[in-house]
Amino acid sequence: MARGVPTGAVRISRTMVGNETIGVVYNFVHDGRVLNYQSGFLYESDSRLKPGLVSHVLAIEDSIARGESGYDFLAGGGGHKSHLANREQAMTWIAVGKDSPERHIEAKLRSAKRMLRTIATNVPKKTAALYSVLGGLVPGRSV
After folding, report:
1. Cα separation of 69 and 60, whole Å?
2. pLDDT, tens digit, for every residue of 132-143?
3. Residues 6 or more apart from 54 whose CB is under 8 A from it?
């Protein structure tokens, strides 16, 4: 951070309401793109207040004003991402390490998880609802 902030490679944005900080967004900037890395928000009991959403909107507006080409939320899920993003692209994950039985098991589990996610995403809602009503797969009954 000590080297990145002065050079513009690291950007820390603080969102304030009056004298109170409600959000801090820690981003990297590379090749004209802002890469969201970490953030912290002051949440209230009133769920209508959205310090994270407000903080990201302000950071996005700032990046547009600077002429940057994109604001990338990177990996992970988050409600604000689907509200603010206008596209997404697949990320490639690479695990580097010693070959071991544990690595093979992990790879098989990751593959199964991807397959299940693909199936869940592509199953029509009516079929999924019927599946749910039937309590899952029932022997002798096709869904």
Report:
1. 10
2. 555 555 444 444
3. 15, 22, 23
SS (H, E, C) 26-66: EEEEECCEEEEEEEEECCCCCCCCCHHHHHHHHHHHHHHHC
Q: Which of 36, 22, 40, 28 is nearest to 1 (CA)?
A: 28
Upper half-sphere CA count for residue 25 (Cβ side, 13 Å) = 24
pLDDT band at 65 (very low <50, low <70, confident <90, very high): very high
Banded model confidence at residue 130, pLDDT cuts 50, 70, 90: low
Average pLDDT over residues 2-15: 90
Number of H helices, E strands in the chain: 5, 4
How many of the other CB atoms lie within 10 Å of CB of 32?
11
Token reading at 52: 């994270």
Phi, psi of 30 (to 5 degrees): -145, 130
Nearest to residue 58, comparing CAs of 17, 87, 112, 99? 17
Mean pLDDT of 51-75: 89
- In the numeric block, the tokens 């790879």 are attached to 107
